[in-house]
Amino acid sequence: MASSSSTLAGFGTAPFAGESWWRRHQMTLTPAILLAPGCLFFAVFVLWPILDSLWISLHDWDGIHPMRYVGFGNYAELLHDDTFYTALENNVYWLLAYMMAPVFGLVLALFLNQTIRGMRFYKSLFFFPFVISQVVVGLVFSWFFNVNFGLLNVVLHAVHLPRVALMESENWATVGIIIAGLWPQTAYCMILYLTGLTAINPELVEAARLDGASGWRLFRHVILPQLRPATFIAVVVCVVGALRSFDLVSIMTKGGPFDSSTVLAYYMYDQTFHSFRYGYGAAIATVLFLLMDVYIAFFLWSLLRRERR
Amino acid sequence: MFPAPIQDARPLGRFGYAAAVPIVLVIWLLPLLAIALTSIRSLEDLSRGNYWGWPDRIMAVHNYRAVFTSSPMGRYLLNSIMITVPAVVGTLALSSMAGYALAKFRFRGNLALFAIFIGGNFVPFQVLMIPVRDLMIHVVPLYDTIWALVVFHMAFQTGFCTLFMRNFMRELPDALAEAARLDGVSELRIFWHVVLPLVRPALAALAVLVFTFIWNDYFWALVLVQSDSARPVTAGLQALSGMWLASWQLMSAGALIAAAPSVLLFFLMQRHFVTGLTLGATKG
């Protein structure tokens, strides 16, 4: 590293280039040049579409003919739409159930936080479900839950319990999909906590042990507080995951039976492309966006607060 | 270390633990093992109702070859690669530039821009869906080509990656850049010759992570393309699930083929992957 400044001198252009216009302004121009492409793409494909969606949600539109302004008509209709409430309710279930992922993930991480032969390999196999696509996860679990030959029913049958048709049941389809979703989500939380556990201050743990703390009390008062950063990320990721849930619903039930397992993300897609109600779809998306904003705001607030320190 | 190291436990406990880990692992991966077992069965085996017993014949080669010969799976895989690789490269280029500007230059609105990149990263896809699809149909006519997915993924992933790069670059010492500056090296050259070589680990971590994100994307593949010539493997698999309704051995083999590349990359680049994923999980 010591040699880098002398090596770099070789890159210096003309000896008196410092006088040029570029030289004088480069401290202002450089960030602008570096930011321009990223900002352009982000503005065109992320920021502007948000505003455009809000605008579309105020219209009646089939995607082809000219849009017709209806003010808050789509939102008024949502208030009387049973399927919308089902979707909203299911999203709440997703959110609540996904809060179990950090808990399960932490349990798995504590279980695996040892150094035995082949542990690295074991850990990566435990992490496996997160790496594979949700499409594959959905197919795997559809197969697992299958009423005729799924492993779940084979096991139930073996212990003389009645068969269950999770995916065909209005009451249970969402439960089945959420279980499928928790699988990769738990794996993700596990890896967050495994990393968190390696960063724990061993001196604090030893000191607490010398003071006679062990087991649950040691965990509760010494370990858990030090895992806070991991917990924070795990919760944020799970909330976002729960509100984003689309792939599994689309693969496993298509929102059925009778829209009982739909969620806002899927219902929006369904209304837009299957019923050609773009304006209404945009209104559903806006509701989802507003829900997500609460968490975006919370996340930004805690991140930027850390930044000021 | 917490929990207490298992080496300190009594022999019975050590033995119990060494046995428990693989058992829990098998239960944890049971759904996947079931699919793997199904993918090597024969059709007769399945129609006879032998779903969970040992296969009567191992048909692995036959089934996996059938996936490629009887469906456009090869095409889908190729599409996925042609979408994912340029999108990852583009994302890394955009985000390392933006991340550097946000990390090392002081200007008005720096923090606000940073916040926008982070916030945009969490936006639900559905609120972008209709306008992005319209853009791809009417403004930049890329709809139903792999480039629609390349461009969109590149734009969207830039949010997360800029956050990552900015935080990584902020930790770099200023001394090197200062020294170069005193030598009269221009700012853009400093970025290229001093900063980029130093952030290679971060670039590797992001590359692996974003590769799996994009490879596994299903939603945008549904929204932005519709023909087999542009469909990536996730949407392709979904399309095939209709065709292979009763051929679970092909479906299972197809699913495993679709999952294989990102799994392979994960195993090869595990350390980088975990670095990327656990960003922020350790420091408060």
Question: Concise description?
Answer:
The complex is a heterodimer of chains A (309) and B (284). Chain A has 309 residues and is mainly α. Chain A has 15 helices and two strands.
Separate helix tally of chain B: 15
CATH architecture of the largest domain in chain A: Orthogonal Bundle
What's the CATH class of the largest domain in chain A, please?
A: Mainly Alpha
What's the quaternary structure here? heterodimer
Mean pLDDT of chain A: 86
CATH topology type of the largest domain in chain B:
MetI-like fold
Give the CA-based shape of chain A.
Answer: flat
Mean pLDDT of chain B: 88
Radius of gyration of chain B: 24 Å
| Total beta strands of chain B | 0
CATH 4th-level superfamily of the largest domain in chain B = MetI-like
User: Which runs of chain A of at least 5 residues are low in confidence (pLDDT < 50)?
Assistant: 1-15
- Main sheet properties of chain A: 2 strands, antiparallel
Pattern of helices and strands of chain A: HHEEHHHHHHHHHHHHH
The H/E string of chain B reads: HHHHHHHHHHHHHHH
Chains forming the largest contact: A-B, 117 and 108 residues
Q: What's the shape of chain B?
A: flat
Number of domains of chain B: 2
Low-confidence stretches of chain B: none
| CATH superfamily label of the largest domain in chain A | MetI-like
Properties at a glance:
heterodimer, A: 309 residues, mainly alpha, MetI-like fold, 2 domains, 15 helices, 72% helix, flat, disordered N terminus, B: 284 residues, 0% strand
Report on the structure:
The complex is a heterodimer of chains A (309) and B (284). In chain A, 72% of the residues lie in helices and 1% in strands. Chain A has 309 residues and is mainly α. In chain A, strands 1-2 form a two-stranded antiparallel sheet. Chain B has 284 residues and is mostly helical. Chain B folds into two domains: 6-68, no CATH class; 72-277, MetI-like fold (Orthogonal Bundle). The longest helix of chain B is centred in the N-terminal third of the chain and has 32 residues, at 73-104. Classes of the chains: A mainly alpha (309), B mainly alpha (284). At the A-B interface, α1, α2, α5, α6 and α7 of A face α1, α2, α5, α6 and α7 of B.
